[in-house]
User: Fold these one by one.
Assistant:
Number 1:
Amino acid sequence: SAVISQKPSRDICQRGTSLTIQCQVDSQVTMMFWYRQQPGQSLTLIATANQGSEATYESGFVIDKFPISRPNLTFSTLTVSNMSPEDSSIYLCSVPGTSFDEQFFGPGTRLTVL
Amino acid sequence: AQRVTQPEKLLSVFKGAPVELKCNYSYSGSPELFWYVQYSRQRLQLLLRHISRESIKGFTADLNKGETSFHLKKPFAQEEDSAMYYCALSPSGAGSYQLTFGKGTKLSVIP
């Protein structure tokens, strides 16, 4: 199994600012996923981050709002740009297991936008 | 587009009672289905997957294509089963990629 850490674990931000969330994995992985979980809602996939190429965004999510970096096989960042209170959520990163039938999740970043 | 519905936000049962967490899905093909669990102060983790037909911690789940359901069951609930449970779907052949999650059901087992 993969061990995943995220920074920060939580933050409170002002409207209009940006926050970058880091995700570190203890092994090299090709794909990393970023999810959002709004209060009372399900986890929703934001994008898939592949090392060496641009992230693939799901419907309803755009690169200008959620730019992603993937500089190497163990690290990725997600930036939440120009934040509004609607961006208050838990943001999680995950990676697939070696058999590709399981995902391992990070502990999440709880973001509150005032 | 696929969709996963968990009709119960909260389910409370007494210790030793049977548990059934409902999950219904909408998908035009043959999906792969999973149950994920999040215990208090722990991260989300896989509980079981339908293709393995396994029993984990006494839990089982059967895929019913006719009813498009994948309910999670346990004959005798334990206090340590209290957690948030998420049903998830992946398109056939995609493995664990492109997971679509339900909103989750919070299971509370009363001592």
Number 2:
Amino acid sequence: DTEVTQTPKHLVMGMTNKKSLKCEQHMGHRAMYWYKQKAKKPPELMFVYSYEKLSINESVPSRFSPECPNSSLLNLHLHALQPEDSALYLCASSQDRRGGSGNTIYFGEGSWLTVV
Amino acid sequence: AQSVTQLDSQVPVFEEAPVELRCNYSSSVSVYLFWYVQYPNQGLQLLLKYLSGSTLVKSINGFEAEFNKSQTSFHLRKPSVHISDTAEYFCAVSPSNFGNEKLTFGTGTRLTIIP
């Protein structure tokens, strides 16, 4: 089973709203990631969690706030977003952060976010 | 640092014809190579990967890719495409001695199958 589950699949929010994206995996992976993908572009890394601790923040604006409540869950809290933040947000996981044989990153289906 | 080049942004192919999607990479260290597929309005799915060993790797749906170290390439091929292969294909590389966050994607190739 190589499944990463994301909810909601679609989200429309106003610029003053607070919402959250959720991600879950039951593969025992200890590294989890958030990527942002704009239309017709490759995914861009936002955050990396390793063993439930934030390891990497790729200079993401503070209106995006990640949270890792436990080893299976990853949230992305959204507040005061801008229309240019509209994109597909992809969650992913891997055994751990180490690059290595078999340590492949698996992606979820994504959450389509529209900011109005 | 490494980079990935997918020269073809769009590739139209007639159904049942062969296809090759090109991927070249640049890296100062050894790398692992991946092809991910993104079907319309969906997330990324791992199609196949090269980590070590045999340079020819295959997927369950008929795609294959060959790692060519001298040409720094990892082209994706299928001998006969189907309508369901219509998707965006991303080549990606990850340095073998660094963290997974160093996974670098190409700009993608949109494969369109013509009935």
